[in-house]
Write a structure and sequence with these properties.
The protein is of the alpha/beta class. Helices cover 45% and strands 16% of the residues. The structure holds nicotinamide-adenine-dinucleotide.
Length: 424
């Protein structure tokens, strides 16, 4: 292992490493499935000598993934998948104690964000690991020659999978990518329970707003939106959902939420959170009718869900009133509070998902990397689902780690389920 001083990196302050170590250890305690995979990887070394560039939120959970990949023999470098989501102490610890090159500083500007991504690509990866598909996009647009060396990639989030499918459809995707997000043991738990809880955490940490009795608007009733609406209701909020998909809207209605278009919700909401993966979901016409003091935030992947340039152009002034809270004063005297620059609020103002849910997401990431190496040269240049047996294995291991036992099919039941002739 090279000395920390020899490790390529751009982190805020290496002196923060002790605190980062505590956080990484704390997260590790709740990541039992990843621990098992790490033990297996350290015996079997499935990623031996493989160069990997990972563009993920640099958090304590991601650190445990990076350590697992390294244990499996990979040569890993890490850069941030969002300018505001890095935990600087964790980044410092990975460099100092694990000699893992990290390029990430919380609050970095857009240019630095892309410089860091380029630094991760200088590693000439054989596997890319993305959260939002910025790494693969940068590789395919600015470093095309590097695609030749890539065995495959993995993608963590809904928005990234959508972008990758668009690339595959247009024939520009140059290597196979596994859609980790689409594993049941990822989106059903991480997006729903992880985003649900941590988004509330982010909103409350930076505002200290009382949710009980507030009108809480959730834009988008997908996996994240369902979790968020459920948790906001649990805190006593009057939750209103906005949607564009009739089935999802119907589901929200039957789950007991009021559903209405954003132009109506905008007039009554106290707290707004967008989780759609779409752009300009809250826009000028909505700011025009919002109540004085409305709080607006986003937990979707990119900071385009709220039309911040429109809000800026409608404002006479703005000031930072608390950390991660920017108050925009409108020409008519109303004030609107934007949280975390419109970036995913659970990572900007809180700590992202709890480790025990990232355990499953990152178990899937590690196993997907192993799968890519095992199937090197056999996969096409398209987006693949996580293999079903991998998904079931992660669920089984998670249940075991929680000491939850379930029933097994009896031979008679197996026969019954496999036959079509038995009716009454
Ligand atoms: N904050 C986090 O940590 C975190 C975690 C996981 C996913 N994400 C991101 O959150 C976003 C949502 O992910 P998901 O898994 O819930 O996706 P999803 O596809 O399950 O749900 C998105 C929902 O938004 C709806 N929608 C689209 N445009 C809309 C609009 N204009 N108004 C209202 N609703 C609209 C869609 O109909 C859909 O039901 C993505 O960008 C994803 O990458 C964030």
């Amino acid at each position: 292992m090279p000395a920390a001083s020899e490790v390529r990196c751009d982190v805020k302050n290496i002196g923060l490493a002790d605190m980062g170590r505590n956080r990484i250890d704390w997260a590790n305690q709740s990541m039992k499935v990843l621990q098992l995979i790490r033990q297996e990887f350290s015996r079997t070394k499935p990623l031996k000598g493989i160069r990997m560039s990972a563009c993920l939120h640099v958090t304590s959970e991601t650190a445990n993934l990076a350590i697992t990949l390294r244990e499996g023999g990979a040569d890993v470098v890490l850069c941030a998948s969002n300018p505001l989501s890095t935990q600087d102490d964790v980044a410092a610890c990975l460099v100092r104690d694990y000699s893992i090159p990290v390029f990430a500083i919380k609050g970095e500007d857009n240019d630095t964000y892309y410089q860091h991504m380029n630094a991760a690509l200088d590693h000439n990866p054989q596997i890319t690991m993305d959260d939002g598909a910025d790494l693969v996009t940068t590789l395919l647009t600015k470093h095309q020659a590097k695609a030749e060396n890539v065995i495959g990639g993995t993608e963590e989030t809904t928005t990234g999978v959508i972008r990758l499918r668009a690339m595959a459809k247009q024939g520009v995707l140059r290597y196979p990518v596994i859609a980790v997000n689409d594993a049941m043991t990822k989106h059903m738990f991480d997006n729903r329970y992880g985003t649900g809880q941590s988004t509330i955490d982010g909103v409350v940490r930076c505002t200290n707003v009382l949710l009980a009795g507030s009108k809480f608007i959730v834009a988008g009733y997908g996996w994240c939106g369902r979790g968020l609406a459920m948790r906001a209701r649990g805190m006593g909020a009057d939750v209103i959902v906005t949607e564009i998909d009739p089935t999802r809207a119907l589901e929200a209605v039957m789950d007991g939420f009021r559903v209405m278009p954003m132009h109506e919700a905008a007039k009554i909401g106290d707290v707004f959170v967008t989780v759609t993966g779409n752009k300009n979901v809250i826009a000028r016409q909505h700011f025009e009718v919002m109540k004085d003091g409305a709080i607006i935030s986003n937990s979707g992947h990119f900071n385009v869900e709220i039309d911040i340039p429109a809000l800026d152009s409608m404002s006479v002034s703005k000031r930072t009133t608390r950390e991660f809270v920017e108050e925009f004063s409108l020409k008519d005297g109303r004030k609107i509070n934007l949280l975390g620059e419109g970036r995913l609020i659970n990572l900007a103002a809180a700590e992202g998902h709890p480790a025990s849910v990232m355990d499953m997401s990152f178990a899937n990431q590690a196993l997907a990397a192993e799968y890519l190496v095992k199937n090197r040269g056999k996969l096409e240049k398209r987006v693949y689902p996580v293999p079903e047996d991998q998904d079931r294995r992660v669920a089984k291991l998670k249940l075991e780690s929680m000491a939850v036992n379930i029933d097994k099919l009896t031979p008679q039941q197996e026969e019954y389920l496999a036959s079509w002739s038995e009716g009454t």
